[in-house]
Amino acid sequence: MDGRLVPESQAVVPFLTAGLHYGMGVFEGIRCYDTALGPAVFRLDDHVERLLASARILGFGPLPYDATALSEAVHETVAANHLRACYIRPLIYLADGGMNLSLDTGRPRVGIAAWAWHDYHGGSATAGIRVNVSSYTRHHPNAMPTHAKVAGNYVNSFLAKTECSRLGFDDAVMLDTEGFVSECTGENLFLVRRGTIFTPPVDSALSGITRDTVMALAGDLSLRVVEERLVRDRLYSADEVFICGTAAEVVGVREIDMRPVGDGAVGPLTAAIQREFREVVSGRHARSAGWLSTAPERPVSGTLESQGVQAPR
Ligand SMILES: Cc1ncc(COP(=O)(O)O)c(C=O)c1O
Fold first, then answer.
1. Same domain, yes or no: 135 and 108
2. How would you classify the pairing of strands 25-27 and 249-256?
3. Torsions phi, psi for 69 (to 5 deg)
4. What is the pLDDT of residue 263?
5. Looking at the domain assignment, is residue 27 inside a domain?
6. Across residues 227-251, what is the average pLDDT?
7. 113 and 13, same structural domain?
């Protein structure tokens, strides 16, 4: 928290923190994988770059930490928690003012947490998940900053996710304000038709780092990926549908709006992308070295123990 390692019980914010009241914060979701070279953070530079871009898009003034400091702090947080595989959550939020809704009357504070989070969609992920098209519309890009991971944006996601869970689905597809497929609540979406992979452009959707990874891996497999607007009917007539994001990773969709996708099982191209992705993140792929970042050689500057704190196990 703001440059100090503290146990979770002390990672607290005062009640009068504008970030908490108005969603004035930007964050990242990053994963660290257990590899033969030790815990390795996937596409750390890209996540840190997007975090800083989100802060700029939101309009934060100068931040107390630069990209190098944030990247080092991510590694330190993982090490301090003795985690090998985990999810990492950096958050820059407005504090010390800002209750009048102006970013300029508060100042940004930074926290980074890490926890073990294996399977975002639970047991359903392997067999493929069931999704619905949400009754909620994705943000119009001039209503919310759709290219930034802004805390307040996620009201839209949690409305859709809570609705879909209550209806008995695993996740929800969100349509944009013109009725075209945008993305899911926290994942980008791909469909496969006759051997070609299609994905919506990132106008109203987040430009996902996993999406970019999938597109690169599909290219390596000589699969054609086409970015184009998709009406919901294309989901129903697809041979395969899969979604991807840092938390969810790559997950097949076996049913949409009570219609089976293809033959109702995870399809072959989805499985091929999943296999490649798994190889990459476990450090066994030709692309692994470029995308995985292990902790710096030198000892990290502080551990919870060095501050007299018992780390969570
Ligand atoms: C709304 C939304 N779309 C897509 C994604 C996938 O992005 P990434 O692959 O960078 O995690 C996320 C997760 O960060 C998200 O929150």
1. no
2. unpaired
3. -65, -40
4. 95
5. yes
6. 98
7. yes
Q: What CA–CA distance (Å, rounded) separates 196 from 98?
A: 48
Amino acid (1-letter code) at residue 119: D
Q: How far is the CA of 226 from the centre of ligand 1 (A)?
A: 19
Give how far the C-alpha of residue 217 lies from the chain's centroid of Cα atoms, to the nearest Å: 18
Name every protein residue with a CB atom under 6 angstroms from any ligand 1 atom.
Answer: 29, 157, 183, 186-188, 205-206, 208-211, 245-246
3-state helix, strand, coil in the chain (%, to 5): 30, 25, 40
Range of the domain at 150: 124-266
Give the pLDDT confidence of 30-60 residue by residue, as tens digits.
Answer: 999 999 999 999 999 999 999 999 999 999 9
Query: Mind listing the pLDDT tens digit for each residue in 106-152?
Result: 999 999 999 999 889 987 778 999 999 999 999 999 999 999 999 99
- For residue 282, is it within any domain? no
- Give per-residue pLDDT as tens, 69-79: 999 999 999 99
- Residue 200 CB burial class (10 angstroms; 0-12, 13-18, ≥19): buried
User: pTM of the entire structure?
Assistant: 0.94
CATH number, domain with residue 51? 3.30.470.10
> What pLDDT is recorded for position 126?
86
Secondary element (H or E) of residue 288:
helix 288-291
Task: Enumerate helices (H) and strands (E) in the chain, giving the number of each.
Answer: 9, 15
Residues 61, 108 contacting (CB under 8 angstroms):
yes
pLDDT at 311 (0 to 100) = 40
Ligand 1 atom with the smallest distance to the CA of 47 is 10
Which of the following is catalytic: 138, 149, 211, 254? 149
Question: What's the mean pLDDT in 163-170?
Answer: 98
Tens digits of residue pLDDT in 169-190: 999 999 999 999 999 999 999 9
Q: How many domains does the chain have?
A: 2
Q: Which long-range contacts (CB under 8 A, 24 or more apart) does 62-65 make?
A: 63/92, 63/108, 63/110, 64/2, 64/3, 64/108, 64/109, 64/110, 65/3, 65/110
Separation of CA 155 and ligand 1 centre (Å) = 14
